[in-house]
Amino acid sequence: MANKNGLVLSSVALILLVACALGIIAAMHFKSVQQEEQEEDDETTTSVKAVTVVCQPTQYKDACQRTLAPLANHSKATPKDYLLASIRSAKLEVHKVLQAAANSSDNIPPQDRARIHECTKLLSFAIQDLESTVITMETKNRTLGDHIKDLRNRLTAVYSFQSQCKATINKSGHKYKSLILEFMLNSTQLSDNALAIASGFSEIIKELNIDQFAFSLDDLNLQYSRRLLQSQDGTTSLPTLLPARDSRRPGSAPAPAPGPGPEAKPDIVVAKDGSGRFMTIGEAVATYKTPLPPGKQRYIIYVKAGEYNEQVVIQRHQENVYIFGDGDGTIVTCDKSAVKHKLETPYTATFDRFIAAEGKGFMAKSMTFRNTAGPEGEQAVALRVQSEGAVIYLCKIEGYLDTLLCQNYRQFYRECVITGTIDFIFGEGSAVIQKSEIVVRKPKASQNNLVIVADGNEKPYQIGGLVLHNCTVRLDKDMEMEVDKGKYNIYLGRPWMPSSTSAIMESDLGGFLKPEGYVPWPQAQNEKTCRFFEYNNRGAGATSNNRVKWITLNILTDPAQAQPYTVATFIDGKQWLQQQQKNIGAPFYLGFIHS
């Protein structure tokens, strides 16, 4: 009996022990589940916060949060993933606009059909840049900080292409317009958001307390970057690649032996007298085949002296075209204008260039590009540059209203002569014009207010603007001989768009300029949001005491403040101009010419 009781007690004890163990296990499991749920909740909260932070720099926050909402459930999503998602969403919406434009009715007036064609072309360029951006981010073995400015450069172009398409379509009264603009509302908002996120990336990663992924924050913030001009001891250096022969007057005749860089031979020779392979530039350009043979870096066209009255189109896929001539003797000319031929401003250009934005640019040397429509022709572009990494050296660009259109991407002009009357240097690209002559011509009788620079940046986070560095601003002979010079009001610039950006640095400014320096854009308040800068200019027109009292005009005295508008920083010249110099022989300053 005793043994039986003991056995019962042992069994009970064992059951209690097992129950206790199971209870402990259950409690531990419950606690583990609670911890996992809490961690998941924390991760979800963190992801939701990340979406909010990433969208903070954007103007269209609702659209941004809808776009990035799927990533809120992925705790491992990085800021790069958010940026990629915003770019892919923009690409999808641009595709929709492109399809809407392509599906428009054929039963429309020819001029409207031409506008649709131009719009679809611009949208296709935007899609190509978006695709290239995604591929770069996914495949390049570099940190995002290494190519953030290239990314911003492309996204700026993406937004600009859509703005240009919208401006073209808006001029039509046909019923298809509303459908295209309806689709474009989403595409422009998402493109704007992607650009804003890329531009605010340094602040985003700071806000999220994330290790900076080997980013250089100086590279991410154009306005405050000083690294490129700092020497090892911390003092401001003045780098230059200027050879000794560069003492001649800017814009003067080219060196005795014009032509491409060392050891370069032309692939095609063009000559009006029949001594070359072709008699027109257009025929020469048509021989360009893609891709170029292995080891061949550029396609070189030599245009002998003569006047070539033709419009030349170097297509976007025709990369690294280099065209050079015999200085003043080689002239490309046409007379197309907005008034005479009822054309949109960009299509009046003597040269229309659409070159792939893959780091390989157009080069021109010792040429004259001339629009002969005259002052009565009004908008008449002589040269339109839509080429990433373009270099224009020892060229003359002659027109009146809207002479040089720096349409998109990074561009460099050296020792050129640019003539015109109103807004004759304009566009939405990032251009530095260095050691050149800027010449104001006599306008038609009804035009009294003359303006040199008009930048077209719409958004504060776009990469773009126009810089005149070490240039000479003077009057043409016809203006010098004008008896009543006082009837003309000549200004350095005006803000074409809300975020117009222009810098005039180390330049010789003539005394004929209005002391105010700048004039507002009609029926707008862009002077409240634009960004205009002057630094260390000289000449009678450089006195700043009576400049306009805009808070957006900055008369800089510290070279560190002006440094963001140098070749080294503004167009990242150190990365590509050295290679282009080998090809074209164009010298350049990375920094300033004076300490």
Description of the molecule:
GO terms for molecular function: enzyme inhibitor activity; pectinesterase activity. With 595 residues, this protein is an alpha/beta fold. The protein has 2 domains: 160 residues, Up-down Bundle (Butyryl-CoA Dehydrogenase, subunit A, domain 3); 358 residues, Single-stranded right-handed beta-helix, Pectin lyase-like (Pectate Lyase C-like, 3 Solenoid), CATH 2.160.20.10. Helix content is 34%, strand content 18%. It has 13 helices and 26 strands. The protein has an 11-stranded parallel β-sheet with strand order 1-2-5-8-11-14-17-20-23-25-26. An 8-stranded parallel β-sheet has the order 3-6-9-12-15-18-21-24. β1, α9 and β2 form a beta-alpha-beta unit. α4 packs antiparallel against α5. The chain is globular, with a radius of gyration of 30 Å. The termini are far apart.
Concise description?
The protein has helices at 2-55, 61-68, 79-102, 110-139, 148-170, 176-199, 201-207, 217-220, 281-286, 477-480, 559-562, 567-570, 573-584, and strands at 268-270, 299-303, 306-309, 312-314, 321-325, 330-334, 351-353, 363-365, 368-371, 383-385, 390-393, 396-398, 404-406, 410-414, 417-420, 422-427, 430-434, 437-440, 449-455, 465-469, 472-475, 489-493, 501-505, 508-509, 531-535, 553-556.
> Can you count the beta strands?
26
Spatial ordering of strands, largest sheet: 1-2-5-8-11-14-17-20-23-25-26
Distance between the termini: 111 Å
Radius of gyration, whole Å? 30 Å
**Domains counted in the coordinates: how many?**
2
Shape: globular
Helix count equals 13
* Strand residues, percent: 15-25%
Gross CATH architecture of the largest domain: 3 Solenoid
Helix content: 25-40%
Q: How is the biggest beta sheet arranged?
A: 11 strands, parallel
Catalytic activity: [(1->4)-alpha-D-galacturonosyl methyl ester](n) + n H2O = [(1->4)-alpha-D-galacturonosyl](n) + n methanol + n H(+)
Enzyme class: hydrolase
Pathway: Glycan metabolism; pectin degradation; 2-dehydro-3-deoxy-D-gluconate from pectin: step 1/5
Subcellular location: Secreted, Cell wall
